[in-house]
What we know:
By secondary structure, this protein is α+β, with helices and mostly antiparallel strands. Helices cover 46% and strands 11% of the residues.
Amino acid sequence: MDDLTEKQQQIVNGLRQRYKVHDVVFHRSLVRAKNEVELFDILDTMPTDFPILWDKDQRRWTRATDLFQS
């Protein structure tokens, strides 16, 4: 999501306040989201246990069961 409008920035700020995740994880989610709806879905389905990995096919964060997987 590049060059956010004022309305989109308000939505992103609201999601940032609602989902208390690390700033890097939030930023990576924001970069990978195509729009604010997908950003909501990414944050809403984020696992609560760590470690997490980005799943390219599902376009979601998933819990890593094996740290050595690539």
